[in-house]
Amino acid sequence: MFDIGFWELVLISVVGLVVLGPERLPHAIRSVSRFIGAAKTMASSVKDELSHELKVQELQENLRKAEQMGMEDLDPKLKASVEELKRAAQEVQRPYANEQSADKKAESTEADNSPASDTREPSADKKAE
């Protein structure tokens, strides 16, 4: 990406030493190296996400082709893609199914407890008037 040679690094080091001084230069180098590391990590993360999304898109296209062909006489490669997509869909739905069932249980217990308190409060307000 960048072609920085030895003499360019020496020049940058000398300018950094003159501008920052010997006390602040090590701290500045550490800060710059942390920033570069974070940028590399973020770039790697974005690259992984894009490749994952491209793979999902390819699987969806293969599934559409399979549906158009009526799921008969499919290539083995296409069948494998369809099976992989089905497994991925099941894995995605499992955590949400567990969360939804837990949410429904919590809502049902709240619903059982809240109507009794709601009916008492209006009558208490009427008595106070």
UniProtKB/TrEMBL annotation:
<dbReference type="InterPro" id="IPR018448">
    <property type="entry name" value="TatB"/>
</dbReference>
<feature type="compositionally biased region" description="Basic and acidic residues">
    <location>
        <begin position="118"/>
        <end position="129"/>
    </location>
</feature>
<keyword id="KW-1003">Cell membrane</keyword>
<dbReference type="Pfam" id="PF02416">
    <property type="entry name" value="TatA_B_E"/>
</dbReference>
<keyword id="KW-0653">Protein transport</keyword>
<comment type="subunit">
    <text>The Tat system comprises two distinct complexes: a TatABC complex, containing multiple copies of TatA, TatB and TatC subunits, and a separate TatA complex, containing only TatA subunits. Substrates initially bind to the TatABC complex, which probably triggers association of the separate TatA complex to form the active translocon.</text>
</comment>
<keyword id="KW-0812">Transmembrane</keyword>
<keyword id="KW-0472">Membrane</keyword>
<keyword id="KW-0813">Transport</keyword>
<feature type="region of interest" description="Disordered">
    <location>
        <begin position="89"/>
        <end position="129"/>
    </location>
</feature>
<comment type="similarity">
    <text>Belongs to the TatB family.</text>
</comment>
<keyword id="KW-0811">Translocation</keyword>
<keyword id="KW-1133">Transmembrane helix</keyword>
<comment type="function">
    <text>Part of the twin-arginine translocation (Tat) system that transports large folded proteins containing a characteristic twin-arginine motif in their signal peptide across membranes. Together with TatC, TatB is part of a receptor directly interacting with Tat signal peptides. TatB may form an oligomeric binding site that transiently accommodates folded Tat precursor proteins before their translocation.</text>
</comment>
<protein>
    <recommendedName>
        <fullName>Sec-independent protein translocase protein TatB</fullName>
    </recommendedName>
</protein>
<feature type="transmembrane region" description="Helical">
    <location>
        <begin position="6"/>
        <end position="25"/>
    </location>
</feature>
<dbReference type="InterPro" id="IPR003369">
    <property type="entry name" value="TatA/B/E"/>
</dbReference>
